[in-house]
Design a protein that fits this description.
The chain is of the alpha/beta class. The protein has 15 helices and 13 strands. The strands form 3 sheets. The protein has a 9-stranded mixed β-sheet, sandwiched between helices. The longest helix has 17 residues. The chain starts with 5 loop residues before the first strand and ends in a 5-residue tail after the last helix.
Length: 457
């Protein structure tokens, strides 16, 4: 089935005058431009094919059902100079768990440093219409700009994603409106985090074998199970626990000729433990010890965008996990691009260790997870950072915790600031040598450790 949507734009104006969720990066400095476009057409929903069943192996067979009209939007960030483009579009499935459209990855420095194009597509009903009890979607945010948008059900999200991939991919129509500005697109990488990773898992297992529109998958903070194909009028609201994954823990299908990479924090390793898959020439799983689903630095980075779009300052409290996984995410994308260009797969990394019955994360004498990718904040700790929540509140369950060491413990471990910083730099360079972080992040991590060092000589 080949269905091509209509692209209109660039979109301008509106009561507010800017695209919701656009990047905070100084794009001029990087030689980038960003624009917003509308995408509209007829989308199909999918159901499990008659006579087949959903298996744990992820090799699902689906068939298209009825269709419905939709109209949505996407944001494009791309190099202004075609010569600076590396040929790959990162097509990001916007996350809507907060009740509005979150363009995850739109502020990634790896995108603009390495010449990617980045497309953030609104595929789900909540992104357009918000939660019924809290309409913070695009239509409510700026009716003048977005009032014509409509997604009737998340059932159509998978085909909307397919049509977005075609609209920005190598075989896109080249009419008067080209959202890629004439760039020579070679590859499309599907990216999604958290709920969006779950939706891409279902897309990979069920839809990719039919449509073949994506060249690689990059799933972040993925809990090991996909989302439903058919939910009708229900909307995904994780805080309210609905709707729950329909398929339970399952594997990602391994019979397709596309690279798949999963990059998880310590928190998701629990959910994924029973469906871990071995690394192959088409699959990589990275797990980072001492990290959590969300973390303090991410909340600090998001706060200015939230304040710009909603006009409300967001206080960010300490206590949640303070080990940023952003350098690991950037390294993953970097290695994935090299993989797609015919280079070696991303370096295999150790998995987080489990012990006991039932299996639980093994922890060292500091309460820090054993195994996994070892960032310097974990190998040379000044606090216990983990996925263990500080409280049972929903955000805290995702944010883990950070418990600083006492001065007495710090002195026993390191003696003085110079020794601590020397060991931290050594651990940072070891992480870079292992391929878990990029060279550009080494100095930044060391300087941050110097600024945050609690030891005073």
């Amino acid at each position: 089935m080949t269905r091509v949507a209509r692209v209109t734009g660039p979109v301008t104006g509106g009561a507010r005058g800017w695209a919701f969720g656009r990047t905070l990066l100084p794009l001029d400095r990087y030689g980038y431009v960003d624009e917003e476009y509308f995408l509209d057409g007829e989308a199909s929903r999918y159901g499990i094919a008659t006579g087949t069943a959903v298996g744990r192996d992820g090799r699902w067979t689906v068939e298209p059902r009825d269709t419905s009209a939709y109209r949505t939007r996407f944001i494009v960030m791309r190099p202004a100079d075609p010569a600076a483009f590396n040929g790959t579009v990162v097509l990001s499935w916007n996350n809507v768990s907060a009740g509005f459209d979150s363009c995850t990855g739109v502020d990634s420095v790896e995108i603009v440093d390495e010449g990617f194009a980045f497309v953030a597509i609104t595929t789900q009903r909540v992104g357009v219409h918000g939660f019924p009890e809290q309409p913070a979607g695009l239509v409510a945010w700026d009716p003048e700009r977005y009032g014509s948008l409509s997604i009737p059900s998340d059932d159509y999200s998978y085909d909307i994603f397919t049509q977005a991939a075609r609209a920005v991919g190598p075989q896109r129509p080249r009419g008067d409106v080209d959202p890629m500005g004439g760039l020579d697109v070679r590859l499309v990488v599907a990216q999604g985090s958290s709920q969006s990773a779950a939706r891409l898992a279902t897309y990979l297992n069920a839809v990719q074998p039919l449509e073949h529109t994506v060249d690689a998958f990059l799933l972040g903070v993925y809990f090991g199970s996909g989302t439903s194909l058919e939910v009708g009028e229900a909307v995904m609201n994780p805080a309210a626990g609905m709707p729950r994954p329909a398929f339970g823990p399952h594997l990602l299908r391994d019979d397709l000729d596309v690279p798949v990479m999963v990059v998880n924090s310590e928190l998701e390793s629990n959910a994924c433990y029973g469906v871990r898959q071995p690394d192959t020439d088409r699959y990589r799983l990275w797990e980072t010890a001492g990290t959590s689903h969300i973390f303090y630095q991410a909340m600090v980075d998001i706060a200015p965008r939230f304040e710009r779009d909603f006009g409300v300052a967001v206080p960010v409290a300490r206590g949640m996990n303070e080990v940023s996984t952003a350098p690991v995410n950037d390294a993953a994308l970097h290695h994935l691009q090299r993989w797609l260009d015919g280079g070696p797969p991303p370096p295999a990394q150790p998995r987080i260790e489990f012990a006991g019955e039932p299996p639980a994360i093994a922890r060292d004498e500091h309460g820090i997870a054993c195994g996994g990718i070892r960032l310097p904040q974990v190998d040379v700790p000044i606090a216990t950072n983990s996925s263990i929540p500080a409280s049972d509140e929903f955000t805290q369950r995702l944010g883990g915790s950070c418990v600083p060491f006492s001065d007495e413990k710090l002195r026993a471990l390191y003696g003085d600031a110079a020794t601590y910083l020397a060991r931290f730099e050594e651990a940072t360079r070891a992480a870079e040598k292992a391929g878990a972080i990029l060279p550009r992040d080494v100095d930044a991590l060391v300087e941050d450790a110097r600024a945050q060092c609690p030891l005073v000589d």
